[in-house]
Amino acid sequence: MRLTQTKAELRAATAIRPRAVVMTMGALHEGHAALLAEARERVGPEGSVVLTIFVNPLQFGPSEDFDRYPRTLASDLAIAKSEGVDLVFNPSRDELYPNEPSVTVHPGPLADELEGVFRPGHFSGVLTVVSKLLHLTAPDIALFGEKDYQQLTLIREMVCDLDMDLDVIPVQTVREPDGLALSSRNRYLSETERDEALVLYRALSAGAKAGMNGPDAVVAAAQAELEAVPSVKIDYLALRAPDLGPVIGPGEARMLIAARVGLTRLIDNISITLR
């Protein structure tokens, strides 16, 4: 496994095809490991798996946790090596943004909904760095977790609208045995807060079970679970079509939730079949 930290080193090292990229902000956990394992399987032994580790300042708001975000490079590299990663790109801020960017990616109207209401400008920062890293790593496939479902949807739209020559591969959310979605921010939770956070998955699961009774029943079932734990402050609970447009008729849908547990903000989502 090779570690690169400059764009010149990265360009010199990315000659192997086919190539898969997994983009992270570090603090790797089993969810990231699942992305890397899927990438390794898809490109095969003859291909190359590239992992990027960069805490992107453009996607953090003024009151968010950029400085507090965990940086755990040594353990990240150990996980990467164990999952068969060939190349790690871990640039500094000055390497990726030598100047304050004056040209960024405008993500469209979906970015102003759901997460965008509470994190204005967040998705412009996400798509800008993803676009840069796709350009630098030149992959055939890029893998993203479904836990950040709105992010995944917007990346798919960007790749399609800008005719980027790669496939975006979604990977299912990895959960703890009790259902809590794995997240780098889970480490901020106290023992009590972690127990409270389980209500997110209980609410989503209750909504999924009510799918046979239609959209209103789905939302009502989820809200009933959430009301039982008033200490968890809900930013939004939304039922949308798979492309995050409005739900129209029976079929597949996606329920999304964001909530604050203590000082930690968590998101989750689940696929729901409406009858």
Strand content: 15-25%
Uncertain spans: none
Q: How would the global form be characterised?
A: globular
User: How big is the Rg?
Assistant: 19 Å
What class would the helix/strand composition place it in? alpha/beta
Helical content band: 25-40%
Task: Report the end-to-end length measured between terminal Cα atoms.
Answer: 48 Å
What's the total count of β strands? 9
Strand order of the largest sheet: 1-4-3-2-5-6
- Mean pLDDT metric: 96
Instruction: Give, in order, the helices and strands.
Output: EHEHEHEHHHEHEHHEEE
The helix count comes to 9
Main sheet summary:
6 strands, parallel
Overall description:
Helix content is 36%, strand content 21%. The protein has 275 residues and is of the alpha/beta class. The strands form two sheets. A six-stranded parallel sheet has the order 1-4-3-2-5-6, with helices on both faces. α6 (122-137) packs across α7 and α8 runs antiparallel to α9 (215-227). The mean pLDDT is 96.
